[in-house]
Protein 1
Amino acid sequence: MFVQAIVLVGGEGTRLRPLTYGTPKPMVPILNVPFLARTMERLYAAEIRDVILAAGYMPQAIVDYFGDGSGLGMNITYAIEETPLGTAGAIKNVERHITGPFFVLNGDVLTSLDLRSMREFHHEKGGIGALHLIRVEDPSPFGCVVHDDAGRITAFVEKPPKGTEPTDEINAGTYLLERDILDLIPAGRAVSIERETFPQAIAEGKALYAFTTADYWLDLGRPEQYLAAHRDVLSGAMPLAVEPGINGAGREALFGHPRVVPPIFAAADVVVDASATIGPNVVLGRGCSIGAAAAVRESVLWEHVSVGAGAIIEEAIVASGVTIGANARVAHGSVIGHDVTIDPGAILEPGTRLGAPPERIPG
Ligand code: GDD
Ligand code: MG
């Protein structure tokens, strides 16, 4: 069965600001590689070669990185939305490129889901589509999906108020759909697949099936989840070809380091003073430098972050180009946007978000 994939990457990543002022959410790095590249690898592994990226917010960063996809052995088509068309509108917008059954992937989901087994499931079940579901403790921030014993979906309730959730099975953001679903989506306006298309398909008696798995699954939409994703990859809970311990091209340099506490992951060219403490659960991007007696714990530093002597960083996300002055303290839950400078000795409260929106959002 020839299957294409549409990856929805048009969201503004509001909950990840200020990181997403400088980097669109799909390009936010997981272990130093843009998240979307991880998704592309998963598609490639499932023998999918034809991918449509439905983008809108800061698309140029995405186009610059992936180009036409030939570098990955894939064929990438871009559809750039002038104004956001919503999760179904984005699919309708690429109708002319869709030739048969297709996957739709929310672009911010980290999961070990095997797309091939989902394809087999849909092939056996038939119907207009299959939705990947996962069980969670708190379903209220997600789409709740109710189905009968045969797996046929009977209700889709997007983000129900807490206490009113009809089930603990949620929409995990991967669908395999038949082309016929496009007939249910009106053209020329924003449409939500969760709030309009799925409920309508159910109301019209179309057969949608639940593909519930116990896979690793995380929506990367919020800073806590972004850090949790790194912890889970570093511990092996999320399988991503990283061994626990000291990883990355920087392992050679950091193996003998007296104060490195695994697991950590570092780029090849990081410079870490011998008296600095790194880890556990730390990721250092290209060009990072950590000064004498500084400490970095449970944090992800993007590229070219300079940490001054004696500074302490805990449970924080630090975007590229940031300078942290000597003896500054970046407390847990802090998110520091691109190119911010933190003065020597500054004390940041827990949960500080620093970084202004650019005057003009590029491309
Ligand atoms: N092209 C395009 N256009 N993409 C969009 C648009 C749009 O107008 N709006 C959102 N997206 C993309 C986002 O970039 C993201 O990858 C995906 O669609 C889902 O949007 P989110 O904003 O992250 O939605 P959510 O996390 O609140 O909820 C969705 O995901 C949950 C699972 O993570 C829903 O699908 C829920 O039902 C689901 O449970
Ligand atoms: Mg999301």
Protein 2
Amino acid sequence: MDDFPTYPSGLRLADRRVVVVGGGHVAQRRVPQLIAAGAEVHVVAPEVTPAIEGLVGSGEVTWHERGFADTDLDEAWYCIAATDLPEVNERVSRAAEERRVFCVRADDATRATAWTPATGRHDGITVAVLGNREPQRSARIRDEIVEQMREGVLAARRQRRRTPGVVLVGGGPGDPELISVAGRKALMDADVVVADRLAPRELLGDLPADVELVDVAKLPRGRSAQQEEINRVIVDRALAGKRVVRFKGGDNFVFGRGYEEVIACREAGVPVTVVPGLTSPVSVPAVAGIPVTHRGVAHEFTVISGHLPPGHPDSLTEWSAVARLRGTLVLMMAVQNAPLIAEALLAGGRAPTTPVAVVCDGTMPGERTVLSTLATLAVDLEAEQVKPPAIIVVGDVVAVAHPERFGAVPSTEEGD
Ligand code: SAH
């Protein structure tokens, strides 16, 4: 019997009872996939890991807090024996066999009636690899197949989905690796890509040759004329039946005018969806080694656009209130107005010694960090010839990251 190959099958488990016996790490690995398949998951175990407990708390699985009883399998379609006690797994196997329920064995594949393949998904295709009891080899083969599908090496290309509409895709701070999987997929599925200056350029090189690339930097100048033209282009192309990706740096809704595009699409009856991106005020400091919060140092971080100077009639920022905040300030589009902003913060009561880090071209090959203080920011920006794009981080988190320059920062919280 052992010599026969397995018979592969894709189980459709939605709303069907699946029993997992055991609440340890094997169970923890299997349960989320069962939930994703829509199964009605019952975990039978005297104890479960905190992760499983979390799923119980959120109502995604039912936990029977006790040992296994044969009758647990009465209504089951499928079961997984995942305890670390072989004799319990054996009992589960036997009870399953009696009830003609397929049963996976975590401890002994030869005693199982079903095997869990190494699985991966790409573009609507599930890859399932069943090795001959060599799980690591199966996982490696799975990884290779999925990777090659992603890269287009494996001819997984299919008729491009022709559902027209607009997808707003956030490309992340600049490093092409920092786009999301969903973002990259939307990009590769597009007929038209409307890209900004700050969108990760390298990713555009991977686009299939027949994709129309609209470079926003080449559209008419002036902030509102340009935005109107973008709205017109994305709506027109979508109405003509194309899949349009509006591709921006960071996240489209963080100083990205993304919602104006959502409104324009809605008004024209064009379906529009959003793929969020890693936004630069958080990710650029992170990659530069600066946390925007730190326990006992900053309990808030505030992201502010500096494109208008303090006191400008159109400014919506109350700088005197900002100055009184104790947490981290992250200033964007602020290189030009930084001297006036520093002045406003000092006038509002922030200490002249407040640490400042200016991260230029974050996550990109030319990334550099200029350290300064509120009192010396204007001089340092000038001396270091800082040019946009840059993120300016103000507050003690900068000192936490750079004690060699600013000294150690005392924490207000003790213990853990
Ligand atoms: N939507 C973008 C922000 C657009 S506003 C996002 O979510 O990140 C443009 C400003 O973002 C720039 O002036 C700069 O302050 C900041 N910025 C974006 N990418 C950056 C990068 N790679 N390095 C430093 N600053 C960056």
